[in-house]
Amino acid sequence: MKPPRHPDHFLRGSLSDIQRDPLGFLTYLHRTYGNVSVHRVGPLDYYLIAHPDGIKRILQDNHPNYTKRVPDIQAVGYLTGPGVLVTDGSDWMRRRRLMQPAFHRDRIHQMMLTMVTLTKDWLSQLPTGTKLNANTYITLLTFRIATMTLFSLDLDERAREVMDCFTQLNELLIRRFRSGRLFRPIPLFKDDRAFLRLLRRFDSIIDGIIAGRRARPADSPDLLAMLMSARDEEDGGFLSDIDLRSEIKTLLLAGFETTSNALAWSIFELGRRPALADALAREARQALATQSFSHETLVRLPQLRSFFEEILRLYPPAWYTARRAEKADQLCGYDIPAGARIIVSPFLLHRHPDFWTSPNDFDATRFLPGRRDGAHRFSYFPFGGGPRQCIGNQFGMAEALIILAYFLKDFKLSLPAPPAPPAQNQQTR
């Protein structure tokens, strides 16, 4: 059975609707056509899948059939290079095996201690009693955490250059997404020329950091050191310098901006709910009362974790992803042809009325222990799911909880009237 098709413009398809309001357009498709529908973007058909059963088959049960050979993902690859985020098959599996030990529980704990130190330092320098741009200050902290945990650079000239290059590249990448230009950057467009120029500069900086570390190995247990020493248990392989460059850029993309976006939304919602902020502050003070910080400290923050998971439900930083069906398949009872492009949106699934009570309402207690018992696993997937679930999901969750806990422990906040919500950047995974 073929899924319902949205009528499109004969040339552009639904590109104009997507450029005008991508989240609104996906929501309209779901409400109008149900859990599976087809729309066209330029010459390409995209199948929107908005039911957890379909998501489970794509991301888990039949995941080898659904590759990242789609323009949406490949466009991200122009920034990151062929890293673990955009590769498929044996290449992806090898990279994942090599990177996984770097995110072992013990490694995460060491990085958490770095997060705590940097967060305390950030808070000690945070101006009080004045109006601040939360996005700007949070971004500076999350980038500092990223550069310290990645390659032990702490606000020196190279770290600032990395941040400057990365921020500009990401802005140009988002602009390309919004214009519908997902093909390889070519020098015909001014912003493409700027993108390629910045990318060469960025790659040169990262290559310099790697070469410097090769010449002078560091004792610090940062991610770069772990990745450089990683060896594949199956074939003895390792990450080349080009591989390392791609994975570093991938980790910057996944671990810096997505976290800062989610934290900006957290500040926004806390500012609108002073009573909730006070309750979470009391929990944070009690959890952080002991001298030492450990994994158990985060366990003592169930209300804060539930709050942040609700943030990720309503404002998932990576609000959609795309795949390509290599072979014909069936999803939710509909025929999916070989070569079909698939759209999966956590934003839609996280607000699906069949799987959430009052799905559009903010409920900070929704994820408290026991509240989600029996829920469909793929009705909530802010970090993806299946074998390709985000490798740094525990890192990102720990970072967010640490920053929020220490902030709430010592600070009160208020929003201007009317409050301005953070900008929702386009992210894909």
Give the number of helices. Answer: 16
Amount of helix: 40-55%
Shape: globular
Topology pattern, helix = H, strand = E: HHEEHEHHHHHHHHHHHEEEEHH
Rounded to the nearest angstrom, the radius of gyration is 22 Å
Low-confidence stretches: none
Beta content: 5-15%
The secondary structure category is: alpha+beta
Mean pLDDT: 91
Largest sheet: number of strands, sense, barrel closure = 5 strands, mixed
Q: How far from one another are the termini?
A: 29 Å
Quaternary structure state of the chains depicted? single chain
Strand order of the largest sheet: 1-2-7-4-3
The total beta strand count reads: 7
Written overview of the protein:
The protein is α+β, with helices and mostly antiparallel strands. Helix content is 53%, strand content 7%. The protein has 16 helices and 7 strands.
Walk me through the topology:
Elements: H1 15-20, H2 22-33, E1 36-41, E2 44-49, H3 52-61, E3 66-67, H4 71-80, H5 89-99, H6 105-124, H7 134-151, H8 157-179, H9 190-215, H10 223-229, H11 241-272, H12 274-287, H13 295-299, H14 302-314, E4 321-325, E5 329-331, E6 334-336, E7 341-344, H15 346-349, H16 393-410
Parallel strand pairs: 2-7
Antiparallel strand pairs: 1-2, 3-4, 4-7, 5-6
